[in-house]
Structure formats: structure tokens, C-alpha cells
């Protein structure tokens, strides 16, 4: 599957320009992490790709056909977890998945529901009413409905929100497994979610594309811009602290900056440092 976005612009009726002239091509199999600060335009991009919104300018092609002409075909291959999805509070988990399976036209729903319940560790809750579930369990129901029918395209808007660290690792591995033969696009604020599993990262900020490439290419951009300060960085140095630790010798701060003082010990950037460096630099742009 190939999704092409050409010069996509989305301006909401309020006048807010949420995406500006975005051109990207996504092809399967691949797991792509979509990163960006709050309000960057990640959900807007995902809504455009799932035809939940129409762009004000630009075009989307699905396997070289315009999205407007292939919407039915796209939806048949799509598993989508929106950021705010409505759950039917009075249904049990199985009833809800059964309903979603019917909407998706899945032929043997029972076996498929059993599979997604097991993949999302929800088998023990299968008979629980949705209103009785915890936040993390509700999120897993959302993921389960996206996985129904093994769609070729998975679009997951912040799938790990509300999940505990153990569950996050489980889902990270599950999505990576799915991406072996599918196209998986997931948005997140959590760098660890994309660190070891995504082949490709797309970073957007203020509706514009800041970076598109492999994680190690993003890391390379921050080389020479990450240092460790003994104590807090002195006043007057424009930098962003990405970590701090208490040691026997006092506090050590890890910070990224466009220009570090000569005396600071430079260290290898992590992906998180590189992301903070990229987004911070953009935020300071006049
Ligand atoms: N329906 C809407 N009407 C007007 N403006 C909107 C609408 N939806 C989103 N926006 C604005 O568009 C911009 C991009 O929003 P979007 O939800 O796509 O960002 P995001 O990257 O997903 O943010 P977050 O990480 O906080 O979920 C924001 O400034 C937001 O306030």
C-alpha cells in the first residue's frame, strides 16, 4: 500500500492553519512514528489520511488513485484509532467489538474478536461493561477495534496514552510485529515508543514538516549539541535540560543547545536529545 500526500494544507473554519504544504509518501511495510509537540498537526494529518477531514488544499493518493475515488477501498483496509473515540458505555467489550466487526464487514467475527482480545490482553475483561473499565483498559479496547480484520493500514493516534510501562512495551512490540507486512503510522509524545521500533520518523511542528528520516539520522543532527553540566547550566546559556541526576558529587544536567560552552563535556545524543534539539531550535526561530 502506498499513501501519497501532495502539498496538503488544512485550514480549519476558525482560520487556524493546522497543516501547511505537507508532501509525504508512506509505503508498506513500514512502521512510522509521527512526532511533534501539542498542536503540531499530528491528529489533523491522521484525520486527513483516513478521510475523516477534507484538506483545504492539496491531494492524497492511495495506491496512485485519488482518495476521493478510493475512499471505500481505503476504509476496507484501514484500522484507525482516533484520539477521541466514542465507546458504547453500556455494551460489554465483546459486544462492542462484535458491533465494530459488523461495521467492518468481518465474516468470522468470533475468532477475530478472540484474537484481538488476546493481543490486547483484554480476555479477562471480555464480559465487562465498558463503563466499568479503567482508562488503560478503554484505550486497549480502542486498539483492539483498530486491529480487527488485520487491516493493511493502521493509523494510531497516541495509542499508548493511559497505558502503564509494561503495557507500552507490549504494544510497541505488537505494532512492530504488525508492521512486518503492513503500514503502521503512530503518533506519540513518548520517544521510547518509537525509539527501537520505527524505521522512519516524521516530525512536524506548527503544521510544517521538520524532519523525515531514520531515527539515527535525527540523532546525527544533534551531534555536538548535547553536553553534561556539573550542576545547573549557568544563567545566560540558552539551552534545554533533557535530564538531571543526583550523584554523590552533586547534580549533573544533560542539556541540548545550539552552542555549548567549550568547557562542557560533550556526549553522544540520544533520540530524545535530538528531538528536543530539533523542536527547540524551531521554536526559537524568529
Ligand atoms: N476542529 C478544529 N477547529 C479549529 N482548530 C482546530 C481543530 N482541530 C484542531 N485544531 C487546531 O489545529 C492545530 C493542530 O491540532 P492537532 O490536533 O492536529 O494537533 P496535534 O499535533 O494532534 O496535537 P496534540 O499532540 O495536542 O494532540 C492546533 O492548533 C489545534 O488547536
Automatic annotation (TrEMBL):
<dbReference type="InterPro" id="IPR003439">
    <property type="entry name" value="ABC_transporter-like_ATP-bd"/>
</dbReference>
<dbReference type="InterPro" id="IPR027417">
    <property type="entry name" value="P-loop_NTPase"/>
</dbReference>
<keyword id="KW-0547">Nucleotide-binding</keyword>
<dbReference type="GO" id="GO:0016887">
    <property type="term" value="F:ATP hydrolysis activity"/>
</dbReference>
<comment type="similarity">
    <text>Belongs to the ABC transporter superfamily.</text>
</comment>
<feature type="domain" description="ABC transporter">
    <location>
        <begin position="3"/>
        <end position="231"/>
    </location>
</feature>
<dbReference type="GO" id="GO:0005524">
    <property type="term" value="F:ATP binding"/>
</dbReference>
<dbReference type="InterPro" id="IPR003593">
    <property type="entry name" value="AAA+_ATPase"/>
</dbReference>
<keyword id="KW-0067">ATP-binding</keyword>
<dbReference type="InterPro" id="IPR017871">
    <property type="entry name" value="ABC_transporter-like_CS"/>
</dbReference>
<keyword id="KW-0813">Transport</keyword>
<dbReference type="Pfam" id="PF00005">
    <property type="entry name" value="ABC_tran"/>
</dbReference>
<protein>
    <submittedName>
        <fullName>ATP-binding cassette domain-containing protein</fullName>
    </submittedName>
</protein>
Amino acid at each position: 500500500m502506498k499513501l501519497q500526500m501532495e502539498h496538503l494544507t488544512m485550514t480549519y473554519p476558525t482560520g487556524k492553519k493546522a497543516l501547511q504544504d505537507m508532501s509525504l509518501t508512506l509505503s508498506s511495510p513500514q512502521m512510522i512514528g509521527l512526532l511533534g509537540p501539542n498542536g503540531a498537526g499530528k491528529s489533523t494529518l491522521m484525520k486527513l489520511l483516513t478521510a475523516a477531514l477534507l484538506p483545504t488544499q492539496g491531494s492524497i493518493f492511495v495506491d496512485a488513485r485519488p482518495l476521493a475515488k478510493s475512499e471505500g477501498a481505503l476504509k476496507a483496509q484501514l484500522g484507525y484509532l482516533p484520539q477521541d473515540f466514542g465507546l458504547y458505555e453500556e455494551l460489554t467489550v465483546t459486544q462492542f467489538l462484535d458491533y465494530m466487526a459488523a461495521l467492518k464487514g468481518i465474516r468470522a467475527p468470533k475468532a477475530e474478536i478472540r484474537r484481538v482480545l488476546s493481543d490486547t490482553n483484554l480476555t479477562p475483561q471480555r464480559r465487562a461493561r465498558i463503563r466499568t473499565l479503567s482508562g488503560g483498559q478503554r484505550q486497549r479496547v480502542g486498539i483492539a477495534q483498530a486491529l480487527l480484520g488485520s487491516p493493511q493500514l493502521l493509523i494510531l493516534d497516541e495509542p499508548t496514552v493511559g497505558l502503564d510501562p509494561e503495557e507500552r512495551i507490549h504494544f510497541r512490540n505488537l505494532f512492530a510485529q504488525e508492521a512486518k507486512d503492513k503500514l503502521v503510522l503512530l503518533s506519540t509524545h513518548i520517544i521510547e515508543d518509537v525509539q527501537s521500533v520505527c524505521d522512519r520518523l516524521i516530525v512536524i511542528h506548527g503544521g510544517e514538516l521538520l524532519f523525515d528520516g531514520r531515527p539515527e539520522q535525527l540523532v546525527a543532527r544533534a551531534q555536538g549539541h548535547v553536553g553534561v553540566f556539573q550542576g545547573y547550566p549557568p544563567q545566560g546559556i540558552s539551552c534545554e535540560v533533557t535530564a538531571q541526576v543526583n550523584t554523590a558529587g552533586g547534580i549533573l544536567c544533560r542539556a541540548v543547545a545550539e552552542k555549548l560552552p567549550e568547557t562542557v563535556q560533550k556526549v553522544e545524543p540520544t533520540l530524545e536529545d535530538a528531538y528536543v534539539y530539533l523542536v527547540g531550535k524551531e521554536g526559537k526561530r524568529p
